[in-house]
Amino acid sequence: MTNILPSYLRDQWWVPEAGALRQDQGPAQVRDASTGEVVTSLDTQGIDLAGALEYARTVGQESLGALTFHQRALLLKQFGVALTARKEELYELSKRAGATVRDSLSDIDGGIGVLFTYSSKGRRELPNGQVYLDGPVEPLSKDGSFLGRHVYTRLPGVAVQINAFNFPMWGALEKFAPAFLAGVPTLVKPASPTAYVAEAWVRILVETGLLPAGSLQLVSGAVPGLFEHLRLGDLVGFTGSASTASRLRAQAAPGVRFTSETDSINASVLGPDAVPGTPEFDAYVKQLLVELTTKAGQKCTAIRRAIVPADAVDPLVAALREKIAERVVVGDPRAEGVTMGPLVSLAQRDEVLRAVGALQAAGGRIVLGTTDAPHVTLADGTTGAAPDGAFVAPILVGFEGDGDALPDAVHEVEAFGPVASILAYRSVDEAADLVGRGGGSLVTSVATVDPAVAATLLARTAAYNGRLLFLDRDDARSSTGHGAPVPHLVHGGPGRAGGGEELGGIRAVLHHMQRTAVQGSPAMLTALTGVWHQGAASRSDRHPFRKSLAELAIGDQIASPSRPLTLDDIETFANFTGDRFYAHMDEEAAAANPFFPGRVAHGYLLVSWAAGLFVDPEPGPVLANYGLENLRFMTPVSPGDEIRVVLTAKQITPRETDEYGEVRWDAVILNQRDEIVATYDVLTLVAKEPVEETDAAAAASATAEVGV
Ligand code: NAP
Predict the structure, then answer these.
(1) pLDDT, tens digit, 9 for 90 and up, residues 158-202
(2) What are phi and psi of 560, to 5 degrees?
(3) Residue with CA closest to ligand 1 atom 40
(4) How far is the CA of 356 from the centre of ligand 1 (A)?
(5) Beta strands at 441-447 and 267-270: parallel, antiparallel or unpaired
(6) Domain boundary among 485, 519, 546
């Protein structure tokens, strides 16, 4: 009896009862991509999907809801560390699916990289709380007592991931990380051919003992009736073919957030300036080689259409042929020296060869490579036929004519393997038209050093792409590559690519949350968001710089005394800093300026004075000032005016791993008429616990009068 790959449901490993196994055709067998040996079997007879979803919505929601964004972010880092420690196991296992070491770099290291990236982005860009504020405060009444603001709170359901076979680890982790950070539990359904790799990384995470209860579940195999159990508040993140996506989208109940990343006939344009002999031509050839051979071309982002100037077609094919002969060794990834593995399965190989046949039927001619089964390097290092391995050699398909004369099939048929078409163009506009005919892509790359070519292609093709990469002599070495989505940037694309653009960066976290406009008084918005709003209560007991995070509360405030400004002050500041801009130094020229009544104080003088007015100088819990944000000067200050500052603790973000945290202060500089001179946020680092005070500080603290 074959072993059944377990699922992980309700925080336990699960396989069907022996008696419940599929009687009709038996469990689905998953085979080694190079040898055809059975690796594992899949069967989910009797699986309780409704129960698993409900467990996520209750137990998973509760355990993740008890954590802040930063606490979840730190767990992601720990998951990354755990997977890194056991990377070798994952590399070995992935070889069974046809992945070479280089392929696993993108899947395994790429997946781990996603966890680290989201961990640090989460701690840098999200508050250490549970509500995310979107955009500025909108004052909705003249007296400031009624405000509006947009907030994001997490969805109450479960994030169901249905993933493609080609990236069993990265493809899942790029969705798991943002869902987890948002506080939404995940149920992963990997594609059958590589489900055992997904099971392995899930097992490693389970074995850390760090997964919050119900935050991650895995279904190894079919998910019959899954969509019947989904409801408002749940999400489906689908990755796979466009045809499966449209079938599943139709099954999603209203209110279920369904997004898809599907197949895409990505383009790569060789600019007219990138003639043979230029660094851009060389970079283009190298990139095309990488895209054809990495994961044996089984990448949603791989180049399917090489769009090149008509007179560059032959030199490009020749250059690529040379590179393939030099660099490509097709074979079993377990053998030394193999640089390109098999496709994931014989079924996938047949599918690819069928697609090549469709391109040929539409007028294509194989200009490089062959559809014959290649002789390959076998696991023992010998060379020979591998009848049970899913091997295909790199193939380039050429077409007669250019532009509109090219058949539709070249823009429509996805051969999900080491296959690309080479298409000729005669003008940059024609190249742009060809890119657009892909019907919406994940990525297009352009090799050019000419900004005019790049600008035309940006204007004409960006709307058809989720990502554009411009390759030139300066970034050719450092570029992450045409086919590599990065966790910081959008992954997805319009039209045929699925219409998804939610993955990449903090927008992917927000995709798992609901944006709601919240209206209320300053006090209510302060209470709901944990961020002090102008107009809410403030407290001026002790100087807030004498308070550690344990003592400080939002709304703690210092209102300084006033300080008068003289012409001498302006001149001293100008001479000291060297900033002798005419608005400060030349009465006549300043008065002629539309914004100033005459000579005025430097804005930086005012900000410096404000610091002098609000700072409490003795050593204490405030450790450092690390910046200002949103600084705006609103009313000029002339000699004879006075300024004062009101500083209020606005947001407190303790760091999970340090003995200090960030405090954002609301700073308002006012003049003697109470007009606002400047507003900004002051950013400081403050100790969590009271620090031992010097005698002077203790005395200052005891006597400080900080009332208005
Ligand atoms: P697929 O055949 O469309 O399958 C995708 C996923 O859907 C698999 O997990 C599959 O599970 C599942 N699925 C199929 N029918 C289902 C149903 N009725 N209910 C629930 N789940 C169902 O695609 P694939 O062969 O795995 O992947 C290759 C394709 O994915 C290519 O076309 C490629 O371009 C695309 N892709 C796109 C991206 C992207 O980001 N845009 C990334 C990678 C791949 P089973 O395997 O168990 O059938």
Answers:
(1) 999 999 999 999 999 999 999 999 999 999 999 999 999 999 999
(2) -85, 165
(3) 261
(4) 20
(5) parallel
(6) 485
pTM of the model: 0.91
Tens digit of pLDDT for each residue in 640-685? 999 999 999 999 999 999 999 999 999 999 999 999 999 999 999 9
Residue 138 lies in a domain: no
Write the CATH number for 241.
Answer: 3.40.605.10
Q: Looking at ligand 1, which residue's alpha carbon is closest to its atom 42?
A: 300
Atom 39 (ligand 1) nearest CA: 261
Residue 505 in any domain: the answer is no
| d(C-alpha 484, C-alpha 300), whole Å | 10
The CATH number linked to 290 is 3.40.309.10
Task: Please name the helix (run of DSSP H) or strand (run of DSSP E) that holds residue 419, with its range, or none.
Answer: strand 419-425
427-451 exposure pattern, b = at least 16 Cβ within 10 A, e = fewer: ebebbbbbbbbbbbbbbbbbbbbbe
Atom of ligand 1 nearest to the CA of 243: 3
pLDDT tens string 417-441: 999 999 999 999 999 999 999 999 9
Whether residue 276 lies inside any domain: the answer is yes
Decide which of 214, 235, 261 is a domain's last residue.
261
Residue 582 lies in a domain: yes
Q: How far does residue 83's CA lie from ligand 1's centre (Å)?
A: 25
User: Which pLDDT band holds residue 698 (cuts at 50, 70, 90)?
Assistant: low
468 and 410, same structural domain?
Answer: yes
Pocket of ligand 1, beta carbon within 6 A: 162-166, 189, 191-192, 222-223, 239-241, 244, 248, 261-264, 300, 414, 416, 442, 497-498
Active-site residue list: 261, 300
Residues 371 and 403 in one domain: yes
Q: Which domain holds residue 399?
A: 267-485
Asked whether the predicted pLDDT for residue 318 surpasses 50, the reply is: yes
Contact predicate 165/192, CB 8 Å? yes
Find the distance separating the first CA and the last CA of the chain, reported in whole Å: 82
